[in-house]
Amino acid sequence: MALKKSDLYSSLWSSADELRGSMDASQYKDYVLTLLFVKYVSDKAKADKSALIYVPDDGSFDYLISLKGKPDVGEKVNVAIRRLAEENDLLGVINNANFDDPAKLGSGKELQDKVSNLIGIFQDIDFTGSKAEGDDLLGDAYEYLMRHFATQSGKSKGQFYTPAEVSRVMAQLLQIPVNTPKSTTVYDPTCGSGSLLIKVADAAPNGLTIYGQENDNATWALARMNMILHGNETHDLRQGNTLANPKFTYNGNLQTFDYLVANPPFSVKSWRNGFDFSFGRFDGFDTPPDKNGDYAFLLHMVKSLRSRGKGVVVLPHGVLFRGNSEARIRTELIKRGYIKAIIGLPANLFYGTGIPACLIVLDKEDAQARSGIFMIDASRGFEKDGPKNRLRPRDMHKIVDAYTSGKEIARYSRMVPVSEIADPKNEYNLNIPRYIDSSEPEDIQDLRAHMQGGIPDRDLDALQPYWDAFPNLRSELFPPLRHGYSALAVDKSDIQVRVTQSPEYGTFANGIADTVDAWWADKRKLLVDISPTTRANDLIQNVSEALLEAFRPRPLIDEYGVYEQLMSYWNASMHDDVALIVSDGWDGSARPRLARTWKDKNNKPKYEEAHIVTGARATARRWVMDLIPPEYVVARFFPEEKAELDGLILEQEAASQAAEEYTGEHAVEEGLLWEAVEDNKITKALVAGRLRVARREGAEADEIEALQHVIKLYEAEAAAKKSVKDASAKIEQLALAQYEKLTTDDIQSLVIDDKWGGTIRRHIGAEVTALGQALIARLRVLGNRYESTVGELEAEVEALSAKVAAHLAVMGFDG
């Protein structure tokens, strides 16, 4: 069975749990990632005898398994990993974690158990059956771990990792042509764990030749492992300080590259320590300030680009506007035309810092002819993700689309002429808010409307995208009142009904549904044809881009919002489904399987959550349906039985409510059922016990009658629950038997039409609902705001005052 991404992530993070508490996340990542590497290359060597990584018997993961529970397990794991490193020129790369370190892992039995448990977690992961995306599944798992380690590593220790979303945007901004040969070079002078380089190489269909340098030895080792896990076995990553000792030189000059990406450490104060001035990195420029290395890194990158080279760099926002020598460097860069674009990013995206950053796009090709800089303010597009912010798929796509098309979008993007940047009022300051006002328009109170009534046409004009979609709705709701003002023709409480039940709203919603149906029908064959050669990333690229194109011409609805609905579902569920189908085929992936079982630390059995359980206790069988949960089979093949079950559930709910209401009324102090209450609880057994005592003691007739009645209510509830249980069991048995009868066509229809298609339609339908609700909410605000004029309010106050005075007079207060 294929390894689901979600299951892999869970297993890998549980391996971190074994180490959490004994060391910082920035340290225990080395243990987890080393074992991930050994397990992966061992499984790959089993499946592919021509794999580039040779795995000796005494350096394999199977050998590590044989060491579990032995007193010297830590020492022997170190020896085994060293053997694997020696055979593949990976000494100092994969053997940095010490599995026999009592300071980090404890001593004696504690170390023995901890290392053995770690091996056991990876032992249960099988990478040989995961063919969905080649090595991408492992690469994604590595990214998952890196992101979590970066989150937990604390300030200044998470800078080895550039968020994958930012890396993907940077790779797309380079606009690497499809036919680019693999010999084309890409360089990252501060490559960290290498994820940024990998994303750029992935963006080139033929791949790229990878070069990188990283100062921290442990992080450099992570990058080497990362390259291999992503299938980039051929790469040139070197360890050392890029500013003091650049490793890529030729004839005394810096080596130059076709493409460049970097996320250097922000504002390094010690950048001058050992800096080598002999490479002319500042020729023609001022020297960066002693206590801030941002421009030292940037000028190194400019020098490292070939004459037609292109690069994208992450830097703190301060580089756009800081003065003195940095201002002089920035001015020279602009005059030379090296800066093609600037993208302002949301704050708190990066690990180790919360300050906002920007992307600077460098392009030396035709630089002298450049007459403007394209600016994007993307600072408002993100979602919260734990302690950090994160770019959503919609945010990433919008940035790339705006840049590649050069499209000017209000409050988001524009081409800024160099003449405007050079104007004395700006003096080559590139702070984005100088050129793009991304703030929302102020919601102005209209004094004339407050005095004379009516809704200002200015406020209604601001809703023009809605009126474009619903051409007659505005005139129906807001007939003209006087010049510049309209009346609200309906009671504000009726606004929702008038909007949602208007023919135009219905036509709009149906048009959206028709667009989704046409897009899905067009892509259905692509989904039917999923096979072992399908690459999941290519598949979703094709499907999602077609969705965007289908919605671009439609009024009002945001195509990126629709795109986000698809991509959220893809990331949460559909990707795993496609991986299953690629690995096991349509038929194999749809069959029920028995749930996995394992034992916890106390040797008690644990079971994977099951969809259907048959039998009981020792004979129980727990069935899991990975691809097609039973509710889809039931809905398609057993609608009558499902309707009957739904009716029984309603009856059960009614019976439970009747019992709850009756006890709620009478099981209170001084109530007829109070004597049956114990510890503020009442049950059928307590009621039955009290009834026996009440009869024996000759209690009041109304108490006995109440006890008898509530017993009948409990019995009715129990009978209803049994009916539901029996009907549910019957449907589960029918469904379980039906899986064996499913044809390939049945399976594809259940998955593509019912599961995937149905879910996506509902999610996109939610976008339409949200649009309607936003319009209704705004119209209600306007209706409330200008409901009464100042004169009417004053008259109402006077009337109320007179009424109060009259009441006071009746009471003898003359004032």
Chart the SSEs and their pairings.
Elements (H helix, E strand, L loop, with lengths): L4 H15 L5 H23 L13 H6 L6 H15 L14 H4 L3 H15 L12 H17 L11 H10 L11 E4 L6 H8 L6 E6 L2 H13 L6 E4 L9 E2 L2 E2 L2 E6 L31 H10 L1 E12 L8 H12 L2 E6 L12 E7 L8 E6 L5 E3 L2 E3 L2 H13 L7 E5 H5 L24 H6 L2 E2 H5 L2 H6 L3 H5 L2 E3 L2 E2 L8 H6 L2 H26 L7 H16 L7 H32 L2 E2 L2 E3 L5 E3 L4 E3 L6 E4 L5 H8 L1 H28 L17 H14 L3 H39 L4 H42 L4 H21 L5
Parallel strand pairs: 1-2, 1-6, 2-3, 6-7, 8-10
Antiparallel strand pairs: 4-5, 7-9, 8-9, 10-13, 11-12, 14-16, 15-16, 17-21, 18-19, 20-21
DSSP summary: helix tally: 28
- Rough outline: globular
In terms of structural class, how would the helical and strand content be classed? alpha/beta
Write down how many β-strands occur, each being a DSSP E stretch of 2 or more residues: 21
Low-confidence stretches: 130-135
Strand order of the largest sheet: 3-2-1-6-7-9-8-10-13
Radius of gyration over all CA atoms, rounded: 34 Å
Helix content: 40-55%
What is the average of the pLDDT values? 89
Largest sheet data: 9 strands, mixed
Our estimate of the beta-strand percent is 5-15%
CA(first)-CA(last) distance: 89 Å
